[in-house]
Amino acid sequence: MKRKVAIMATIVTGAVLLLAVGIFAGPSENAAYVGSSKCKKCHMKPFRSWQKTAHAQSFETLKMMGREQDAECVKCHSTGFGEAGGFVDSATTSNLENTGCESCHGAGSEHLAGSIKDKELKRATINKSPGGACVKCHNPHMSTKMKMDKEALPVLKKKLEELQKLIAALEAQ
After folding, report:
1. Where are the beta strands (DSSP E) in 24-159?
2. Could you please report the per-residue DSSP string of 19-42?
């Protein structure tokens, strides 16, 4: 009886460890950014949901304010800026404009490369619990850097109106 309990405990412990590795492993340092449009092929429902968020249009806000060259702004309004294979500029890496899927889940090339049947590999190559990623941009330090001055408010109001129209159009589909 004790042996059966020990075997079961070993199996459960192994399963928990495999699950933890699958959830928390994420992409390796060699993974490259591919852009949210690549994620859409298999994850259409989350992609459409993301499209309705401000993250999906975040770089456009910088362009409207003339701050698309400001590194402090770009790092939160693009995907992978300052990281190997991440956003560089609109001319060379326009697929990484905006705060996309990989901003939270990590670079996706390894996730794409795995066989669709190998669910363990798929899980192991993407960050499945990205909660900590949010605080890279959404924190009191960054909020104090964002200046809601007389110049920014009209631009942001116009952007809000555009986003509301976009949301209404998407909901009508």
Report:
1. none
2. HHHHHH----TT-----HHHHTTT
Q: At what angle do helices 152-172 and 58-65 cross, to 10 degrees?
A: 150
As beta bridge partners, residue 97 has 78
Spatial distance between the Cα atoms of 17 and 115, rounded to a whole number of angstroms: 22
Lookup result for tokens 């309004």:
77
At 140 the three-state DSSP class reads: helix
Tell me, what amino acid is at 153?
A: L
Give 34-74 pLDDT, tens digit per residue: 999 999 989 999 999 999 998 999 999 889 888 899 998 99
* pLDDT the model gives residue 134: 81
| pLDDT digits 0-9 by tens, 142-158 | 654 555 555 666 777 77
